[in-house]
DNA sequence: ACTCAAAGCGGAGGCACCTCCGTTAAAGTG
DNA sequence: CACTTTAACGGAGGTGCCTCCGCTTTGAGT
């Protein structure tokens, strides 16, 4: 809120070296654990494997969502980064469809955190600029482009799209049906196109 | 499935009186607890309040979902029961829209169990004939009617609709935005209508 | 009425979550 | 290099989830 140099509040010390090290180790261990997980991961197990106390884990990541998000955010670039490329190569509606497909594929690889991501997203607990905002911004870019080209509706908010995608990802995460995912994405596209060309 | 008097499988004893009584008490207490809940409800608290051991609760309802579903199912009739009426009074597409609105309103009152319902539905854990099937059947009825009248697409599965509704309900449950719910439902309707009349 | 198989009960126990706070050691200070 | 400050550590502890199993109660058969 207040103006700041971007570092830390005036008078705050730089973070200690061991703190940075521990935080890093935790993210590494968590990334591996989430990737390998078939089920929900034990945070105490992550702390143990990282060689720190459970208290340290919770200081760095006050909630499970915070840890999941830290891992998730690091890999999100590949999804948000391709928007410009897609828009350059494809008309807006096709770009939107392609982007949703990529996002779906990305989410599908995140089974270990799916439950947490879902709960966190829906409840707004995952709401930092680094994740939710980036997704919303990516969608907004494509929507704006499509609205200008009159191939996508102009009265749709980015959050409307994420709401629909959320349901699709959750529903299709349970049953292993890639073709249902595709079908649903096509369905959503039909809803998002300009009704009267 | 098999022919039966409707009681129980051959050779099985009738359930004991105390078991029925406890089961009933648990549902009553749980209904009140879920309705009053702002947060997730403690199952041990429900057992305590019902005057039974935690073991008894878990025997009757092996998972949290089972208990939530038992409460939920009892109140679901008002949603599934109005399909015939809606179809009689309205054209299929309008009936579908109206029905989705009712369902949304119903879900909105279920905040206390929202988290559990969501998780259970997405993971397929809530999958008994008494809930998921009933919703699916309700949607299927309307879709079939609309497909015959050529006002709704014929290539949409009921589960596709539930997937979209799931996302809408979850997203709008976080932020109190009834108008976003309505907008999203309209959006979904556009997707479900027959594209070329 | 009496018997007794088994349906049903309840809580101890193991695990995970998360908080709180006494202790440790990193980074400034003289 | 001592010394001080305090960020950071780590784990004990309280709560909730869920399972397992020895004890109690029910009710069908005689």
Automatic annotation (TrEMBL), chains A, B:
InterPro entries: Homeodomain-like_sf, HTH-type_TetR-like_transc_reg, HTH_TetR, Tet_transcr_reg_TetR-rel_C_sf, TetR_SbtR-like_C. PROSITE patterns: HTH_TETR_2. Coiled coil: none annotated. Residues 20-79 form the HTH tetR-type domain. Residues 42-61 bind DNA. It comes from the Bacteria. Keywords: DNA-binding, Transcription, Transcription regulation. Signal peptide: none annotated. This is AcrR family transcriptional regulator.
